[in-house]
Amino acid sequence: MTLRTAYLATALLTASFAVPAMAQQAAPAAAAKVNVTVGATVMDTKGATVGTVSSVSGDTAVIDTGSVKASVPTSSFAQGDKGLLFGMSKTELEGAAKGAAVSQQQQFLASLKPGTAVSDQNGGAVGTIEAVEGDMVTVATPKVKAKLPASAIAPGPNGAVIGMTQAQLEEAAKGGTPPTG
Fold first, then answer.
1. Predicted confidence (pLDDT) per residue in 118-147, tens digit
2. Are 112 and 135 spatial neighbours (Cβ–Cβ below 8 Å)?
3. In this structure, what are the phi and psi dihedrals at residue 50, rounded to the nearest 5 degrees?
4. Burial class (CB in 10 A: 0-12, 13-18, 19+), 26
5. 140-177 pLDDT, tens per residue?
6. What DSSP string runs through 58-80?
7. CATH 2.30.30.240, domain 3-108, yes or no
8. Helix, strand or coil for residue 179?
C-alpha cells in the first residue's frame, strides 16, 4: 500500500467535520521525530509548496493550503531541506479534504430526524426539526413552521445550526420570503 493510498483510506475512515481531512499513516517507527511548528512551509515530495502549518495541537497539525485547512498527524511529516515534507501534493490534499467535508455533511444531513434541536450560530434556541422530506427540512418554532433547504443546516457544537435566529426565521416565514442562511 502506498503512502497516498493509505492516506486516502485513513481520510475516508476517520474524517471529522470540524477538521476536514485526516492524514497519512504514521511514519515508520525508525524515522526521527520532526519538529512541526506554526508557520513552517510544507512541501510535497517533488518540492512544490503544499501550504503552511497554521496550528499545532498535541500530535495534530493543521495545514493551510489557502483553500482548505486539513488536520494531519504530526507523524505524517519528514524534514526536508526547504521545510516539512508531506506525502501529498496541494491538489491531492485539497481534494481529499473537500471530499471528506462533503461526505461528512452528507452523513450529518442523513442523521437529521424529527425532534432534533436547532440553534442559531450563537447557540440560541431556534426550534426543532419536525420533518425531513428529501432536500427540505421543516423547522418548527413556537410560532411558525418553516421549510428550509437541508443545505441551510450545518452541524454545530451542540447539534444542528442555521444562520438565523428564532425571530429572524419567524419573520421570514410569516413574510413568505424564503429564509436564507
1. 999 888 999 999 999 888 999 999 999 999
2. no
3. -95, -45
4. middle
5. 999 999 999 988 888 887 788 998 899 999 888 887 55
6. TTEEEEE-SS-EEEEEGGG-EE-
7. yes
8. coil
Q: What is the DSSP annotation of 100-116?
A: HHHHHHHHHHHH--TT-
User: Greater confidence, 12 or 41?
Assistant: 41
Residue 41: other Cβ atoms inside 10 A: 13
pLDDT of the residue at 101: 74
180, pLDDT greater than 70: no
H helical segments located in the chain: 3-14, 90-111, 166-175
In the chain, where are the structural domains located? 3-108, 112-175
Helix/strand/coil percent split, the chain, to 5: 30, 30, 40
* CATH code assigned to 112-175: 2.30.30.240
